[in-house]
Amino acid sequence: MSKTIIISNRLPLQVSIENEILEVSPSVGGLATGLKSFHRDGDSIWIGWSGLTNEEIPENLKEQVYNEARKEACIPVNFTSEEIDGFYYGFSNRSIWPLFHYFMEYTEWESSNWDIYKKVNQKYANAVVEHYKDGDTIWVHDYQLLLVPNMIREQRPNASIGFFNHIPFPSYEVFRTVPWREEILKGMLGANLIGFHTYDYERHFLSSVSRILRHPVDFNEVSLPDRIVKVDSFPMGIDYDQFEQAALNHSHEKFGTESDLQQRLNNHRKKSPGSKLILSIDRLDYTKGIANRIRAFEYFLEKYPEYVENIRLVMLAVPSRSNVPQYQLLKKEIDELVGRINGKFATVNWIPIWYFYRSMPFENLIDLYTSCNIALLTPIRDGMNLVAKEYIATRTDQTGVLILSEMAGSAQEMNEALIINPNNFDQISEAIYQAINMPVEEQKRRNAILQKRLKRYSVEKWASDFMKALEKSHESRNVYKATPISSQVEDEMLNQYKNSKNRIFFLDYDGTLVNFVDKPENAKPDPELLELIDSLSRLDKTKVVLISGRDKETLGTWWQDVPIDLIAEHGVWMRRTGKDWQLNEKVQNNWMETVRPVIETFCDRTPGSFIEEKHYSLAWHYRMTDPDLGEMRANELSTVLKELISNHGLSVLEGNKVLEIKSSGVNKGRAASKLLLRKNFDFIFGIGDDWTDEFLFKELPEEAITVKVGVKKTEATYFVQDTSRVRDLLKKFKESH
Ligand code: ADP
Ligand code: G6P
């Protein structure tokens, strides 16, 4: 039976060894806590790191570590301390983590760490391949394993691979600073489906792919030469029932059976009945805004001194990545801040902050969630933040107020919380004030909506939505991919051609009949081509239409003696055989005055590029520019133009090393349709190489034979490699008449 292989750096269980005794505890962090229930309920194995290095596991305990993991359907992968230093403490947490959270000043680029990151990713990929069987589904998780999808793809080209990024994906302007940005994007694109928590992260990723790798991006699909990769957002949920049930059980606990922590919390309540508890829970991480939170709390106490002795911040920070210097500094900063503020405000009966620096068992988390009136979560950046969701799920009587940073992914789904900017102390302190004084009815109204949503979009739903989308994208990965023309297909085409009574050929010119050259005016048809097209068009019952984006003067001159129909400027002009040019579409060109100067500024800054002015369109050619610069400028220009022309009935066509601005309604497909209306053709053939020809492929009737030149994403049915094969095919048609 096929299974799912989950792979993440951290397994849901962590192994530690005290006095030669093995201890297994659950992992902290959204990825592990969230995915756990999917793993528990489904048929999957989970590959990841046990939390110990090779050096830390004595030889005689190695097998036991493996067996403990296997008990929970996990497969540990082992690393040396050098590997963990370079891969985990190094590249993952000193480069990617800070950069992706917009902490650029914390980001370090060490090529030795990058080398180890690659090596460890390869180890992970190999471990997956080792356990992979045909039909399995592979689900790779998070920023530590960005290269793994493609490393698996290289060994298992047909595997169904999903990738989910649990942290933000930064904007292109930030991501472009990565020295190995191409490799990272290529690594991720090994997947069939790439998921993010929010649409913004998805958008940032797609923008980096299109700008850096230059792959065509169509809505949320990336076209690689041989596959389509789908990108989508799936906001991760929690195991709602588990938290709700734990809270319900907790409320039925008998007097005297509570945990020590709960007894302390109860005592506090008894001593000062009207007072409030504010909860803060996170891993000790600079992205979580813990220092800001404490300072904002200080600001609140100064602004509203009446709450001294009547409010307390219960702060739980879980130790995390303590080998990384920034985390050590943060620990020191938080210790000092808590000490200073407690010193400043404490009275004989009261201290403002209860601070715990440790991991806690699940039951204690529930004690805290259910006992605190307010949850204050103020990350500076956070991919999702599940704590916010867990807090709401445990509020079974629907009281409680969540104050949440707008920088957390979860804020996008939790509008009914009090949403704050984590850098605005005044706003945070006002939110605390509002939370303390919020009428119970309002608390219930807000929480009822939140709970309904969280219950519906639980972690099970999240995982099953992702898996369904993965299955779909894997099945349809080749949907747009044309197939090569085999000799059998070729025979069938020629047969159909021979037996037909009315034939029509739509032929694109540049890139289809002739190769691209330095300048458009130098791509004149050679005598051999003229002869070929001439003789094809003189055959009985055969119409040849040259359908091009070129201007009518050039086309008209080059093809003046050949009895074919010409369509110029993508369909604006038409010249029937032996007749004069006629305007085929009602179009305007008064917009050119506004658009031309903008393109000219790009010509000035991009040596080798130039404007080609047609009657009803402007084309910016960049074939002769430095390739990188050209692509970069083309991207920039395309963005600028799209903004400039929006709502003006114009569109930007991205051709082969050319951008063309023209009226939206005009395209090759529309022009071809008009011709098809004139007669009943029983053999229709369309061929072209670039984006502008896709309109033709889309418009031609289903029975038409459509052929793309080059292996690219296309609506065409077949592809051929190059122009010489195009000529070869046309020759065969001519000869089999
Ligand atoms: P991140 O993934 O960045 O750590 P999240 O808020 O998404 O942040 O996830 C944190 C997870 O870790 C939650 O599921 C939470 O219940 C768990 N957790 C947080 N603090 C503790 C703690 N002290 N002990 C045990 N689990 C914790
Ligand atoms: C975040 C990351 C996870 C990571 C977790 C805990 O949730 O997205 O990939 O596992 O933090 O961090 P750690 O470094 O301890 O694995």
TrEMBL record:
Signal peptide feature range: none
Record protein name field: Bifunctional alpha,alpha-trehalose-phosphate synthase (UDP-forming)/trehalose-phosphatase
One MF annotation (Gene Ontology) recorded for this entry: trehalose-phosphatase activity
GO CC annotations on file: cytosol
Gene Ontology terms: biological process: trehalose biosynthetic process
NCBIfam families attached to this UniProt entry: HAD-SF-IIB (TIGR01484), PRK14501.1 (NF011071), T6PP (TIGR00685)
InterPro entries linked: Glyco_trans_20, HAD-like_sf, HAD-SF_hydro_IIB, HAD_sf, Trehalose_PPase
Family the entry assigns: Belongs to the glycosyltransferase 20 family. In the C-terminal section; belongs to the trehalose phosphatase family.
Coiled coil: none
